């Protein structure tokens, strides 16, 4: 095979015939969206939905301008700029691999310390939506309450210097203030992060932050800006040499390819103060029951990811598919999902919760996906508190079983101790890794120390039954090992409520 030319607007015609590419004239696409956090998930999900519309001649006035506020965002901008903001999506389905080139990203703001270019771009009347994928850690939330916590150093900087903000939220507020002062209607703020009630949380952060700067501005934002809740779903691995090689095998020399599974879902509230693309024509669902879809996905998929990632990491398994091939981890996932997660999921979507467990089982087990355990286990301090601990709280309050959930927390603590069962080191994998490791090390002898992470567990740590179950499982993990402990849980009769 001839070595492909580097991806660019000029080389699109050189791609192999089987590679789909934009059929629309990208020079006629005008901006309508600024997206902050142009990582793999956004490019495989929201940008793909817009691409589907543009392939049908729709939404050509909704092009995406990328943005970011971190050093790695500048590296991403440079990679994409060199290839005219084009990139490839490689779909990893069990039946085979396919590729397409996405053209909806038409620019990328320079990443600057004072975010001047980003503020200027968001102040443009053409921009009608500002969307975000910055992960939960980027929302400045109190871990226990999930409410805006204004004491962060960067927040305090932006309050004192609102014209030179460091944060994405500070830049959003500066742009909204500029639009208000110029008599320009505001844009919709659209969170696409895996947070329960992500639109409500984004509103809490933006309005609370704005009131610290200017109470009148905070009130204006609350009255005029839309913050729709949304649920997003697609498994998207990180990009490394393997992913770049997969794109190359498809005939694409791409410095920033994205691989993804064949499943996607996007459920949104239809609340957009400045209009929106007709995403429903590309398969998105508009519903006033976003929270029901969200609860099922967060608790079974995101929670399930955390439940299997910890034992897989301790056992030195590389990918989520490897974990699902391990008979005890697979059985652990099935039992905890059916017995301890499903009772806390309302059956108000188009799929019964038990059928959804089967769907997630199939997606996790996809042998074509190289979704690493390390990626899934990253930032467990945010992911456990967002997806697993809310279920534990409900189980305690309603009298539902939580043995497997207690074991999941013992496995997380065991993982954070920092060594695998083969003696190898687990590299730091959480913003709070040093604290987690120190506490996990002490918890080996005194298990309750782990639950004294009050910023995570709160009232969970006060429940005697949960404390007892957690301690028993953590002691057993160290005494008997992961496999024997999982086997004990899987073989035990299911608890009755």
Automatic annotation (TrEMBL):
One Pfam family from the record: Mannitol_dh
Domain of life from the UniProt record: Bacteria
Class of enzymatic activity (EC top level): oxidoreductase
Ranges for domain Mannitol dehydrogenase N-terminal: 32-280
Sequence segments annotated as region (Disordered): 1-26
The UniProt record lists the keyword Electron transport: no
Metal-binding listed as a keyword: no
GO MF, one example: mannitol 2-dehydrogenase activity
Record EC number: 1.1.1.67
Domain spans labelled Mannitol dehydrogenase C-terminal: 290-471
Keyword terms: Oxidoreductase
Protein name: Mannitol 2-dehydrogenase
Species name: Tritonibacter multivorans
